[in-house]
Amino acid sequence: MNYIGSKLKLSSFIEESIRNSVGDIEDKIFCDIFAGSGVVGRHFKRLTKQVISNDIEYYSYVLNKNYIENNSLVETAHLIEELNSLHGIEGFIYTHYSIGGHGDRRYFSDHNAQKIDAIRVKIEEWYESHYINDNIYYHLLASLIESADKVANTASVYGAYLKHLKKSAQKDLLLKEAHFNISGDKHKVYREDANTLISKISGDILYMDPPYNQRQYGANYHMLNTIALYDRFTPQGKTGLREYTRSDYCKKSKVYESFEELIASANFEYIFLSYNNEGLMSCSEVEEIMGRYGEYSLATTSYQRFKADKSTNRNHKATSTVEYLHILKREIST
Ligand SMILES: C[S@@+](CC[C@H](N)C(=O)[O-])C[C@H]1O[C@@H](n2cnc3c(N)ncnc32)[C@H](O)[C@@H]1O
């Protein structure tokens, strides 16, 4: 998934920096507490003893239940085939988020919106009748979220849709299986506020990748929550927004306090924070807070980032950005 703040291209840098500080990581418990698309947890699932993954958003929970917690073979090719062969229905997504629906919203072509409805309804039917278990349920839901995202008629996020159906949105939705890796011990996925979860867990390596600006993920990815939850509500405004969680990490007035509380409560020896230098907290503020709890250091790398070009709402401009990884080796009181 093309996810805002995705660390897909930075996972090798993160791994290298973590190895430099921690040494061997095979027998370590790794926590990805702001997991998003889950790419960091997926990377470390292969390398560590156990991964704990968490995000406040439901679509992220679904992705991580599949990619992180699923850890034994699931036979689903026949189910994917059956879902792909369904006829579309005029359900909630079609009614509220396609051109043919009431709202004149253009997030999906009529055909794809009806397909999403048919597939989503069938997955729930199978789950409720116990035809599929939890593992398969999240596997199929993750497959649907990612396949629907591929044909969404947006520039990148769901804060707005495009006026005309772009090329990729004209293609018919094809449900593609969200394959996951099998590894090691039992992994665990949560959907909680990081600051609430932190006092309930412990481990060796805590990786934190919070939002760094005011853009709320719940608003930007509302459509994915709506497909994943498939509940009933009255979509609001031009974009059909649902109620969403507002994170303290996106608020200038709250971020400093929340961040310090998280660090202070963390029962992990090593803490790593990815944070952009244009973030709500400055580099020196981060250093000041982390430095209060142990030995602080910093790793950096520069890489090419693609930014949406607001003037055309379509093209992407490549800019060179420096990525910062703040490192803390904590004193843990036993
Ligand atoms: C920068 S993104 C993480 C990207 C992720 N590392 C990846 O590679 O896809 C930040 C994530 O933090 C989540 N988030 C924001 N506030 C949170 C909170 N208080 N507790 C838990 N998760 C939160 C957002 O939903 C979002 O997915």
Task: Summarize it.
With 334 residues, this protein is of the alpha/beta class. The chain contains 13 helices and 7 strands. It folds into 2 domains: 168 residues, Vaccinia Virus protein VP39 (Rossmann fold, 3-Layer(aba) Sandwich); 141 residues, no CATH class.
How would you portray this structure in words?
- This protein is an alpha/beta fold and 334 residues long.
- It has two domains: 1-69 and 193-211 and 255-334, Rossmann fold; 72-179 and 214-246, no CATH class.
- 37% of the residues lie in helices and 17% in strands.
- It has helices at residues 11-22, 39-45, 58-69, 77-84, 92-97, 110-128, 134-150, 167-170, 194-197, 217-220, 222-229, 252-265, 283-291; strands spanning 29-32, 50-54, 188-190, 203-208, 268-276, 294-308, 316-330.
- The chain has a seven-stranded mixed beta sheet with strand order 3-2-1-4-5-7-6.
- Helix 3 (58-69) crosses helix 7 (134-150), helix 6 (110-128) runs antiparallel to helix 7 (134-150) and helix 12 (252-265) runs parallel beside helix 13.
- The longest helix is centred in the middle third of the chain and has 19 residues, at 110-128.
- It is globular.
- The model is unreliable at 309-315 (pLDDT under 50).
- It binds S-adenosylmethionine.
